[in-house]
Amino acid sequence: MLKKFKPDMICKSVLDINLETLAKRGIRYLIIDIDNTLVAWREFEVKDEIINWLEKIQKMGFKICLVSNNQKYRVEKIENMLGIPAIYNAKKPLKSGFLKASQLLHQGKKNHQTAVIGDQFFTDVIGAKRLNLFVVLVRPLKEKEFFVTRINRIFEKKILKYYEKDEKE
């Protein structure tokens, strides 16, 4: 059962994602989490290196939609700063937020060309895998997180160790 939800790629940060590999796999659309993936939790400042990375991937031809479980005010503020469409209150790992993003990106018809990038196994990975999307799991930007997320991280670490062990065998 766990193998079904294994991330396709695991990276230290979004800056470490091999974009050429994604392009070679036919990925053209990126659904990207906000909190602790692009912007530290509870912060609004988007670092220059993230802005430059987002500009780079758009120049490479990737289309982007941001998806967050956070509230409208926070998500819209970041959406307006970056000029990238965003879905707030996505209720990940439910499918609805990912489907809304797919609709914005490509009318929901090219999921085989879509990747999800996020920092949480129980929201980003499971939600994306439920739709058979390619998944890139990144480490969270900061350890400071919502209390429920901190609890989830305990179980997430065990699952990621299982995947590491499975790869070595």
From TrEMBL:
GO terms for molecular function: phosphatidylglycerophosphatase activity. It comes from the Bacteria. This is HAD superfamily (Subfamily IIIA) phosphatase, TIGR01668. Transmembrane segments: none annotated. Pfam families: Hydrolase (PF00702).
